[in-house]
TrEMBL record:
Family matches, as Pfam families: Put_Phosphatase
Alphabetical list of NCBIfam families matching this protein: DKMTPPase-SF (TIGR01489), HAD-SF-IB (TIGR01488)
Protein name: Uncharacterized protein
MF term (GO), any: metal ion binding
Binding annotation for Mg(2+): D12, D14, D176
Cofactor(s) listed: Mg(2+)
PANTHER family (UniProt xref): LP01149P, PHOSPHATASE, ORPHAN 1, 2
UniProt entry keywords in alphabetical sequence: Hydrolase, Magnesium, Metal-binding
Source organism, top-level taxon: Eukaryota
Residues reported to bind substrate: D23, D98
Catalytic site: D12 (nucleophile), D14 (proton donor)
InterPro entries associated with the record: HAD-like_sf, HAD_hydro_PyrdxlP_Pase-like, HAD_sf, Pase_PHOSPHO-typ
SUPFAM superfamilies reported for this sequence: HAD-like
Amino acid sequence: MAARPKIVVVFDFDKTIIDCDSDNWVVDELGATDLFNSLLPTMPWNALMDTMMRELHAQGKTVEDIRKALTSVPIHPRVVPAIKTAHALGCDLKVVSDANLFFIETVLEHLGIRECFSEIYTNPGFVDRQGCLRIQPFNSSPHACANPCPPNMCKGGVVEKLLSTLPEKMFIFLGDGVGDYCPSLKLREEDHVVPRKDFPVWDLISKTPILVKAKIHAWTDGKELEQTLLQTISEICPSLLDDEDISFSQLMSAGCELQTVSTSAGYEPLNRTALPMHH
Ligand SMILES: [Mg+2]
Ligand SMILES: [Zn+2]
């Protein structure tokens, strides 16, 4: 039997696992884009999402409506197989996201991959007694981080904590947004950061790559996410392949056979909103 790889893979959620921003998606699907845009200048994003959920509840929209909207989020067809393969290889998978727990769990359960993840670090999201979805900040008190992290969540703090509790593991971190820059800076030389090319985290890393100690591998879409992730796992843990007597290309094709759970909308890369960017 192959040795279990000592690898932790940390995924951002929006525009990394799924191919849109889940907050924008739900607001758009439930017809509240104009209200969202008019309130955005008046409060932080995380507080606005809670306000939006209360507004939608007052308009008669139910948690079931939100759940239904989330089942049609776009996702590249290679992302679910990539996650299933990494999990099957024994990697410890986690999500660190500035979306919220309700959105993330709903999508991961719909995709049949909730069980692949050992932990989800994100803004709390829960349904209150009135049946209204409420969203709270991850960091209940302001964090002192000087990196461009949103006020409600410093992902670097999460990664720092993971590194200190699991120092013997090698980390792979995948993300796209401004909020994914801080955790990228926390990784060590032996770790790997996998930024989405031409997205904000890539731009920030490219400006001063010397600040990043981890090895950097870019990806553009779900197909490259799969290739880069599995290639990196096999580089960290070549014995994984030796012991199983399979090659990287066989690993890739094995991944292909793991069935994709497609969302009802199918895959459709899109940029629905030209809104201010969520972290
Ligand atoms: Mg993201
Ligand atoms: Zn930070």
